[in-house]
Specification:
Two copies of one chain form a homodimer. By secondary structure, chain A is an alpha+beta fold. In chain A, about 35% of the residues lie in helices and about 20% in strands. Chain A has one domain (about 15-170): NADH Oxidase, CATH 3.40.109. The first copy, chain A, is globular, with a radius of gyration of 18 Å.
Chain lengths: ~200, ~200
């Protein structure tokens, strides 16, 4: 058993290299209904436990329904609103926590919602769009204002649009935006044969 | 507000169309170490809340460590073992449920592990490999036999390899293998502006 090392000779598909989560969105460029549906289609075809497909999306497209878009924006933390206000599409990604076939709790609901979410993001990447998911939102407000039922858990808000200019951000956000992307080394997350304690 | 309809004129990237979860694996074709690392790299670059990267993988490559591979196989339900025994790589996908920066519970741990998992699967698809995730395993046995700590939740087992011949499966599995892929209509999972009760 051993830790697994990255191999720079074995890069991933370009989609995984290009996808990232910027905060600078171009408020002047709308997302087409066709592109939005493509992203939702990618999410729709994600795998799920028992094929339950527990992911649910409340989609707010500013140019289609300004009131709904403002209502979702208001569910975000003030700090997230500062930059998400430039995204033409805002969305809540939710997880239905009860299996449809037997009404039992679905222990994979959130896991499977995550599978659908990143599928959405990768399809957006393929279309030249950018996405940014947020955990910073008021879940009670999402239930109350968006009508999400109690057995459905709001997991993440998502901003979709075209990338904007980092110079448009305030200094704090700009520093984060321009920092190099980083991840833990593979050796800290992948273990060969058996768990290896990291520390 | 309204439900959202699929638009067959707006297909997704091929990766989402090609990815699926077969049960027929070709036991005679091994997965290269390079391909395995590429899949793990795609998972590694998934997005996560606070950049915590809560995904953890225990990877069992039969040709590298037969004992470890058998140990993971034995954690699966007998029904899953019937077909997963032909996959050259078996893996446990886990979620670290505690944030590294403050040791608080991470409510996105499972969601983010799902994001990493499907990234792994899509990269495998890009390399001509197939994957099949399983919820049917003995989590207590995974903790005990693979050494997964208590604060890390085993979420899914995954089989990785090359697709085999559906004719090699028993009749029950073969029928499932040859059935057309299906998903809920988009209108049941995506709502414009506000939640729309499905029924």
């Amino acid at each position: 058993m051993s830790n697994i090392q990255s191999n720079p000779e074995q890069p991933t598909h370009a989609l995984f290299q290009i996808r990232w989560s910027p905060r600078a969105f171009d408020a002047s460029k709308d997302v087409s209904a066709e592109h939005l549906v493509s992203c939702l289609e990618a999410a729709r075809w994600a795998p799920s436990c028992f094929g339950d497909q527990p992911w649910r999306f409340v989609v707010c497209h500013r140019s289609v329904d300004e009131v709904a878009w403002q209502r979702l924006l208001a569910c975000l933390t003030p700090k997230n609103q500062e930059w998400a206000k430039n995204a033409p599409v805002l969305m809540m990604i939710c997880a239905n926590t009860v299996f449809a076939h037997n009404q039992a709790p679905n222990r994979w609901a959130e896991y499977d919602a995550g599978q659908a979410a990143v599928s959405f993001c990768l399809q957006a990447t393929a279309l030249g769009l950018v996405t940014h998911q947020m955990g910073g939102f008021d879940a009670d407000k999402v239930h109350a204002d968006l009508g999400v039922p109690e057995n459905v858990t709001p997991m993440a808000a998502l901003a979709l649009g075209y990338q904007g200019d980092a110079e448009s951000l305030d200094d704090g956000f700009k520093a984060i935006e321009q920092a190099p992307r980083a991840r833990k080394p593979l050796a800290e997350i992948a273990f060969m044969g058996q768990w290896v304690a990291a520390d």
